[in-house]
Amino acid sequence: GIDPNFDSNRENVGEENGVEVWGPVDPPEKLGIHGTHVAVDYDICVADGACLENCPVDVFTWVDTPDHPASEKKVEPTREDQCIDCMLCVDICPVDAIDVDAS
Ligand code: SF4
Ligand code: F3S
Q1: 6 within 8 A of 21, measured Cβ to Cβ
Q2: 28 Cβ partners below 8 Å, 6+ apart?
Q3: How far does CA 62 lie from the centroid of its chain?
Q4: What are phi and psi of 95, to 5 degrees?
Q5: How close is the Cα of 76 to the center of ligand 2, in Å?
Q6: Can the peptide bond before residue 24 be classed as cis, meaning omega within 30 degrees of 0?
Q7: What is the best residue among 87, 91, 96 to mutate for testing ligand 1's pocket, by most ligand atoms within 8 Å of CB?
Q8: pLDDT at 10
Q9: What number is the ipTM of this complex?
Q10: Atom 7, ligand 1: which residue's CA is nearest?
């Protein structure tokens, strides 16, 4: 699953779609972690979609990631500032790709 300490263990490599990205990044195979308060490990996400469908405040947006080995689309936490820390997405993701820093 996603490393919950990614923000100290990884380097911030900039922004995409208004969301911070944590490397290493080497597209199309390696896309890093997207987001900070709500973080999605793009290299683990298999596009299950349960997070996006069930988030009560619509934090997530689909983005296309052609040729990524795990899945050809991912969820971008574009509205992570709206997150209410319900932890539903963390609990529901079948591959443990999401970390929400509710502390
Ligand atoms: Fe949405 Fe809840 Fe996940 Fe926050 S913790 S992104 S509100 S499902
Ligand atoms: Fe991806 Fe998990 Fe959501 S696989 S689409 S982060 S439920």
Answers
A1: no
A2: 65, 66, 67, 68
A3: 11
A4: -115, 10
A5: 10
A6: yes
A7: 87
A8: 98
A9: 0.98
A10: 83
Residue 50 near residue 16, CB atoms below 8 Å: no
**Which sequence spans correspond to the domains of the chain?**
6-100
CA atoms within 13 A on the CB side of 77: 27
Distance 69 CA to ligand 1 centre (A): 26
**pLDDT tens profile 27-57:** 999 999 999 999 999 999 999 999 999 999 9
Residue 34, burial from CB neighbour count under 10 angstroms (0-12, 13-18, 19+):
buried
Please, are residues 89 and 75 in contact by the beta-carbon 8 Å criterion?
no
Across the range 67-71, mean pLDDT stands at 98
CA-CA-CA-CA torsion for 69, 95, 100, 30, nearest 10 degrees? -10
Across the strands, what pairs with 38? 100
- Does domain 6-100 fall under CATH 3.30.70.20? My reply is yes
